[in-house]
Amino acid sequence: MGNLNFNNLVTPSLLVHEDLLEQNIRRMQDLSEQTRVRLRPMVKTHKSPYIALKQLQAGASGIMTATPGEAAVFADYGIDDITLAYPVFHFRAREMRLLARKLSRLTITVDNMDAINALVAVAGPDDPLHILIKINSGLNRLGVEPDDKKKLLDLAEKIAASGSLKLEGVATHGGQVYQCSGPEQVEEVAQQEIEAVLAAKNIIEKKFTLSTVAVGSTPTVKYMPEDSGITEIRPGNYVYHDRIQVALGVADINLCALRVVSTVLSRPAKNRAVIDAGSKSLGLDQGAHGSGLVKGFGFLPGNRECTLVSLSEELGVLQVPGNKGLRPGDRVEIIPNHACSVANLFREAFLVKDKQVTGKIYPEAR
Question: What per-residue string of b and e applies to 178-213 under the rule 16 or more CB within 10 Å gives b?
Answer without folding.
Answer: bbbeeeebbbbbbbbbbebbbbbbebbeeeeebebb
